[in-house]
Design brief:
The protein is mostly helical. It is built from 7 helices and no strands. 6% of the residues are buried.
């Protein structure tokens, strides 16, 4: 076996042109075959069709659809996200979600007619956008900080009360 492989290697070294031609041919055939492959990333490729997860996913798709609507807000990303324009983008996302009460997306302004109509029809299950993400991140961070501040306040109050009790036991006013 070793002699056979040595002879093949020797032949390849002595005649590089045919080896290169065969290599290129195999690469081209592989590329053509790869281009004919169809990609399917559907949920039926991830779970069995008989599983509860698959059935629930299909019911969800039947009820709500599975096509996303993409709205593209173009512009300088820094300007869009780091200036007051983020409020406009958040208002747009709130309007498109149809979840703004009465379609009113700006506090001291009447609801734009399209937003009011969207609020009435509630067409979207979810709106995921950069402003919503940043807003939710800020809301959750504020909630977490409020919880931590409350906990620290409780600990400080408990420490104060304990200090007062100790002082009174020691006869201090």
């Amino acid at each position: 076996m070793r002699d056979l492989l040595a002879r093949i290697a020797g032949w390849c070294v002595e005649r590089p042109a045919p080896v290169l031609a065969v290599s290129v041919l195999v690469a081209l055939v592989g590329a053509v075959a790869a281009l004919r492959l169809e990609v399917d990333a559907g949920t039926d490729q991830l779970v069995d069709r008989d599983s509860e997860t698959y059935v629930a996913t299909q019911e969800f798709k039947d009820r709500f659809g599975d096509e996303a609507v993409v709205v593209l807000a173009e512009g300088d990303l820094k300007r869009l996200l780091l200036t007051k324009d983020i409020g406009k983008l958040l208002s747009l996302e709130g309007c498109l979600s149809g979840k703004a009460p009465g379609g009113r997306v700006v506090a001291d302004a009447p609801a734009p007619a399209p937003c009011a109509a969207l609020a009435e029809s509630k067409p979207a299950q979810a709106v995921l956008g950069p402003a919503t993400f940043l807003n939710q991140s800020a809301v959750q961070a504020e909630r977490l900080l409020r919880e931590q501040a409350g906990q620290v306040q409780q600990e400080a109050t408990a420490a104060y009360e304990e200090a007062v009790r100790r002082a009174r036991r020691q006869g201090l006013p």
